[in-house]
Design goal:
Blueprint (H helix, E strand, L loop, with lengths): L1 H6 L3 E4 L8 H11 L6 E5 L1 H10 L4 H12 L18 H11 L10 E8 L5 E4 L7 H8 L9 E3 L2 E5 L15 E5 L17 H25 L5 E5 L14 H7 L6
Parallel strand pairs: 1-2, 1-7, 2-3, 7-8
Antiparallel strand pairs: 3-4, 3-6, 5-6
């Protein structure tokens, strides 16, 4: 795979997946060790956040330091007592401002595309260099899980998480070769039903499993329409939850040694 990617330009596509998306960092670490640089990056939700960091030439070590901010939820969780979401995103916005400042999509070193969803009509919105908006605003949109994180209004339109329309942005890849990492792929869900002592735990696990299956099937439909050379990597994320931000090191390691 490495030799093939060294010979051609390729699009790097990173999926959403909450804390599971931390596995992208382990993959980026290996990518940089092999001196592989994508010609563009397409990201959704956590994949968009990590992808944007790579697009402004941050090293895997620098991105790890950023993610350590998220491993301590008290640094970015601010509960909201109004509106449509549990979490007010103002603390997260401050972190994004520290990272990206006033950078727009024209200020990146690697072409960047971020996927979000128009919450009014469900249509996909792809932010890119064609848009005169700040990177941090696009990221607040792509990570806005409905009911969990505050939705983001941009130019009068309200956006939510990109997973609602395309969790793995294969359709947005410009180049004939695609390298994609899907943390909500086939290896992201248990094949057996939960069997905990407490019914509440079983119900919560069934809900998360259902969401993973829903997204997995969405991606499978999208894959059928891709007519480009696709290298698809699916880390073994089934033993972790989308909210396990405190398990930073363990989840990051899931992304290591995926390329050969």
């Amino acid at each position: 795979m490495v030799k093939e990617l060294q010979k051609s330009k390729f699009s790097l596509v990173l999926s959403g997946g909450g804390a599971l998306g931390i596995a992208h960092l382990g993959f980026i670490e290996d990518l940089q060790k092999n001196s592989l640089t994508p010609s563009e990056i397409v990201g959704t939700s956590m994949g968009g956040i990590i992808g944007a960091c790579v697009a402004i030439s941050l090293s895997s070590k620098e991105i790890l330091e950023i993610l350590q901010e998220f491993s301590n939820v008290t640094k970015w969780i601010k509960f909201s007592f109004s509106g449509n979401a549990i979490v007010d995103s103002s603390k997260i916005e401050k972190i994004f401002i520290e990272i990206f400042g006033n950078k727009s999509f024209e200020d990146v070193d690697i072409s960047l595309k971020i996927i979000a969803t128009n919450i009014a009509n469900g249509q996909k919105r792809v932010f890119s260099k064609d848009d005169n908006i700040l990177i941090k605003d696009a990221l607040l949109a792509t990570m806005a899980i409905p009911g969990i994180f505050s939705e983001k209004e941009i130019d009068g339109i309200v956006y939510a998480d990109g997973f609602l329309c395309e969790n793995l942005g294969l359709n947005e890849a410009s180049f004939d070769t695609i390298l994609a990492v899907d943390v909500l792929g086939f290896n992201s869900f248990e094949k057996e039903l939960p069997n905990n002592f407490f019914k509440t735990s079983n119900v919560l696990e069934m809900f998360e499993k259902s969401m993973r299956l829903l997204i997995y099937n969405q991606t499978n439909l999208i894959k059928k329409s891709v007519d480009k050379k696709l290298f698809l990597l699916e880390p073994e994320t089934k033993d972790y939850k989308t909210y396990h931000f405190h398990k930073l090191k363990e989840i990051k390691n899931l992304g290591n040694n995926l390329i050969s």
